[in-house]
Design brief:
The protein has three domains: 3-23 and 240-381, FAD/NAD(P)-binding domain; 32-126, Fumarate Reductase Iron-sulfur Protein, Chain B, domain 2 (Orthogonal Bundle); 143-238 and 384-449, 3-Layer(bba) Sandwich (FAD/NAD(P)-binding domain), CATH 3.50.50.60. The protein is 31% helix and 19% strand. It has 16 helices and 17 strands. The chain is globular, with a radius of gyration of 23 Å.
């Protein structure tokens, strides 16, 4: 049970099967014929712009040519060489602002890019490897600690293992996968997809995962630094930011990521508490994911509220369109001002002040609106869990705001300690970027602990 919403009724949908049907793949998969036709549209550009913009540097033209030639395993291996979590990224990556936006087909008279994301998904969904497609290099005798079994940590561990190092991953939760397992909309990564991808990644060997180990509680950076040849921090951002309003702890107000995690782990969706009217505060993909999912669960009225305009939202136009298609009302230019409570002290709505820009600065207009709601979900950003960096050694890490500062090789201010993914300063908090951080950090770690100038990437 979600504690903050325990006073609300369960979803009114009695048929669990009908409810599950609301959380199947957002986009239908390509058939073999559709994939062949779509692959034939690719011009296989030299110095392809789609590859140049891909955060993990997947050779897009090459894998699409392999699909066209009927070499599905070759296409899949090419993707996985650069992005070991390419299956998830094919589903959650914002291709509309990356590879597909750069596609030359998007800029000619056709105005319709090659469906790169769906082709990547087709290749990985239909690959049939008899064994892991990559072999480990001979053992180096080195052991690296990785904190966090999310996309950055798993990617780092896999690449380190490929290079012949042993890895021990320390993960706070009972399942590996991080954001893919707990934080992505269920209709983007349905079923047990995230766990199957983790199992595939770990099957390379040389990686041990220890669950229930959390930095700042039963694990310290000093311990890891003293016991292992290097440490990689893939902490993610687990702490939800606060609105700073009175009533923020009232029943009916909670972090969107906590509800999404409960939804993704629920065996029976009909058991989830669902408000009749909901407000989601935020402007990113998490806000969209929350609003769409609570609507699909049966909420009658869902309003997403943002203090600026649509053009300032971090959620892409594609994501905004998903919200609109699911009848989510979107209210812009309104800043949260007051949580409204009923006689029992539970949420009954929220008061907002309308906003505008004044010489580029956001200001209140003095006009106010109230929106009735049985629940409010805040999706206003995440930060590093403070307790995770509370020990004496961890406190020496240089911070940039609420993130860890690293150099170009993902080295922190502490020798032998590296970091990547959402917890570091550079980047856009994308799964695909976290995977790239982990991969590049693994090469830096390998080179540093073996005193190498550089190593060739495995083929």
């Amino acid at each position: 049970m979600i504690e903050s919403l325990k006073h609300l009724p369960r979803t009114a949908v009695a048929d669990a099967g009908a409810l599950e049907a609301q959380f199947t793949d957002l986009a239908p998969a390509l058939t073999a014929r559709q994939a062949a036709i779509e692959a034939a549209r690719c011009l296989y550009c030299y110095d392809a712009p789609c590859t140049r913009i891909c955060p993990t540097e997947i050779d897009v033209a090459s894998f699409i040519r392999n699909i066209h030639d009927g070499n599905i395993n070759g296409a899949a291996a090419g993707i996985l060489k650069q992005n070991i979590m390419g299956g998830a990224c094919a589903r959650v990556c914002p291709t509309e602002i990356l590879c597909e936006d750069a596609c030359v087909r998007n800029h000619d008279a056709e105005g319709r890019p090659v469906k790169i994301g769906l082709l990547q998904r087709h290749a990985l969904d239909h690959a049939s490897f008899t064994e892991h497609p990559f072999q480990r290099a001979p053992s180096t005798g080195k052991v690296v600690a990785v904190v966090g079994a999310g996309p950055a940590g798993l990617s780092c561990a896999h690449r380190l293992a490929m290079l012949g190092n042993d890895v021990v991953i320390f993960e706070a939760r009972e399942k590996s996968g991080g954001l893919n397992e707990y934080g992505i909309a269920k209709y983007k990564l349905p079923g047990d997809f995230a766990q199957r991808e983790v199992d595939f990644l770990l099957s390379i060997g040389g990686i041990e995962v220890r669950h229930g180990r959390k930095l700042g509680e039963n694990l310290t950076l000093a311990q890891l630094h003293g016991q292992y040849d290097a440490v990689f921090l893939g902490l993610g951002l687990d702490a939800s930011r606060q609105l700073g309003l009175t009533g923020e702890d009232a029943p009916g107000l909670m972090a969107a990521v906590d509800y999404i995690a409960a939804l993704r782990q629920a065996d029976d969706l009909t058991a989830l508490p669902v408000p009749r009217r909901a407000i989601v505060i935020g402007a990113g993909n998490t806000a969209i994911d929350m609003a769409v999912q609570i609507k699909r669960l049966g909420a009658e009225d869902v309003t997403l509220v943002y203090r600026r305009g649509f053009d300032a939202m971090t959620a892409t136009t594609h994501e905004q369109d998903i919200a609109k298609a699911n009848y989510v009302r979107m209210k812009t230019w309104a800043a949260p001002l007051e949580v409204l409570l009923d006689d029992a002290g539970a949420v009954r709505g929220m008061r907002f002040e309308e906003t505008r820009l004044d010489n580029g600065r956001l200001v209140g207009t003095g006009a106010f609106i109230e929106i009735a709601a049985d629940a409010i979900f805040k999706a206003i950003g995440q930060s590093i869990e403070p307790s995770g960096l509370s020990d004496e050694m961890a406190s020496q890490l240089t911070r940039a705001g609420d993130k860890i500062q690293v150099d170009a090789n993902f080295r922190t201010a502490l020798g032998g300690v590296y970091a990547g993914g959402d917890c570091v300063a550079p980047g856009q908090d994308l799964t695909v970027q976290a995977v790239q951080h982990g991969k590049l950090a693994a090469h830096a770690i390998h080179n540093d602990i073996h005193n190498l100038a550089g190593t060739a990437w495995p083929t």
